[in-house]
Amino acid sequence: MKRINEIFYSLQGEGRNTGRAAIFIRFAGCNLRCPFCDTEFSEYNEMNDTDIIAAISAYPSRFVVLTGGEPTLQADNAFIALLHANGYEVAMETNGTHPVPAGVDWITVSPKESFAGKAGTTVVRRCNELKCIFDGHTTIANDYGIEADYYFLQPCDTGCPERNSLITQACIEYILRNPKWRLSLQTHKLTGFK
Length: 194
Hints:
This protein is α/β, with parallel strands linked by helices. It has one domain: Alpha-Beta Barrel (TIM Barrel). The chain has helices spanning 49-56, 77-85, 113-116, 161-177, 187-191; strands at 2-11, 21-27, 45-47, 63-67, 89-94, 106-109, 126-134, 147-155, 181-183. Strands 3-1-2-4-5-6-7-8-9 form a nine-stranded mixed beta sheet. It is globular. It catalyses: 6-carboxy-5,6,7,8-tetrahydropterin + H(+) = 7-carboxy-7-carbaguanine + NH4(+).
């Protein structure tokens, strides 16, 4: 049984796959406690793999994003293989503190150890995209020692429009000085679409 916070259909709002229709499977539970987290962990449904496949089959997209919480705490090799056997392309967004199951098609590592006071806990060293939350204070220069195909900085959403504007401007200035990075905005928040 897996603890599922929610399953929903939307557009991917962040990173390289922004704008792509996707089925999101949001797992409940995380090993970090970040101050800006937008996931409610206390509410979830226990679902077996068959029930999850049945739930996602209602949507036309064949692109599934495993997110959380922290999906590596529950998604395993067998679950990824089951998704593939049912014709799904599988993406995962992880904080990188646990190994990613075999066969995930697109891996986004979004390290948050500096926000959660857990320095040195990232174990994933290779991914498709590294997406770092930029708050204007956290040092990004070492890339957490992670090699990626794409490097994204995402301005931290503090809930305060004035502060968010300052962070976004500082993020853009950082990227202009460090052009290997690209800007990732949370377009689902900008458009008001989940």
